[in-house]
Design goal:
Layout: H1 4-27, E1 46-47, E2 50-51, E3 55-61, H2 68-72, H3 78-87, E4 102-108, E5 115-121, E6 126-131, E7 137-142, E8 145-155, H4 160-166, H5 171-180, E9 195-205, E10 208-222, E11 225-234, E12 237-241, E13 261-264, E14 267-271, E15 278-281, E16 284-287, E17 293-295, E18 300-307, E19 313-318, E20 323-333, E21 342-343, E22 348-352, E23 362-369, E24 372-374, H6 392-406
Antiparallel strand pairs: 1-2, 3-4, 4-5, 5-6, 6-7, 8-9, 9-10, 10-11, 11-12, 13-16, 14-15, 16-23, 17-22, 18-19, 18-21, 19-20, 20-22, 20-23, 23-24
Length: 408
Amino acid sequence: MLKPSLKIYSLAAVFLVLAIVVIIGLFFPFSGQLSKTRTPAVHPKKAYKIGLDSLDIIYGKVADNQNLSSILSAHISDVAIDKIAKETRSIFDVRKIRSGNTYARIFTKDSARRTLYFIYEINAIDFVVYDFRDSLKVYLDKKKVTRLVKTASGTIKSSLWNCFAENKLDVNLGQALSDVYAWTVDFYGLQKGDNFKVIYEEVYVDGKMVGIDRILASNFQSNGKNIHAYYFLQGGKGSYFDENGQSLQRSFLKAPLKFSRISSRFSRSRMHPILRIARPHFGVDYSAPRGTPVVALGDGTINKLGFHGGYGRFISIRHNSVYTTTYAHLSGYAKGLKAGSHVQQGQFIGYVGSSGLSTGAHLDFRVYRNGSPTDPLKLESPPARPVEAKDLARFKQLVTKMNLELKK
């Protein structure tokens, strides 16, 4: 027989165990009669936003010389294929299907394996859906996109492009950076030690990086000068501005082509490579492979287009009452251009060549101010519209935020 003190301790222990059981039951309900069984929610598998619970999907790649008919002829009727080609061209022209792009066919799981959908990926994000379930329906859609903010930096040893290669940076980021600073940095005049830091967005689809969306902010230090750029939206349109809210865009680009080198500069007296006499060279020669695209330095009207003596195939563009630019030794012109055509800044106008008196493929580029030749590399151009007064406070907040990131 237990002593009174032991009975008290035993009862206390029983009550303690019961209390623990009750507490556990409150926070972690038992299965069976003490609580209802919790069934986890089942999320149907999807592809291209189409539920696949009772369907199957097969992916493929468009082969060389393959078209819509050769992909689908074994699965849908020729009448349906013809209808797609003729009646849905305004949504997507099937003649634009390209080899290497992904497509998918979604069909029933039964023995009939009837095709319900055909999807063609136009690019990494956009796709077109052909819905055969009832009457034909066709629509465009986009994959879910995730954006990650990243930073990159580098120091120039020889060129911007080599710097990106040495640091294993995406060449598309280099292209985007050169576009941002097209009006303010002379990429042909970079010096060893020039450097940059950039904050940008990478785009991910299905867990894979598919490209660079945009540069958010950057600093490019060239020739001892820091040039900041900030992407800012005003009036629903984004553009790049410096820290004072002045636009980085100018009336003229820094150069009429990309990925080239300067082979001859503006000079009052230069030995002509063919005529072998000293004469002025009132332009800049950009050495580049034949066929390299040439673009207009700024908005303007073509006043001359054609063969022009020693200049070969030639274009002259009048930009305003002050400035005219010329492009010589071209191998060809952009389709549809003629004297009197209006062109926009950065618009493709022709190809590098060696027509006329030329020893090799290059572009002879010249700028005239009030009819007199001026050094294109020293051309100053007024900035475009700055940040508006009503947006300045918001812009300054952005600058402060981005500068903290650029200094890290």
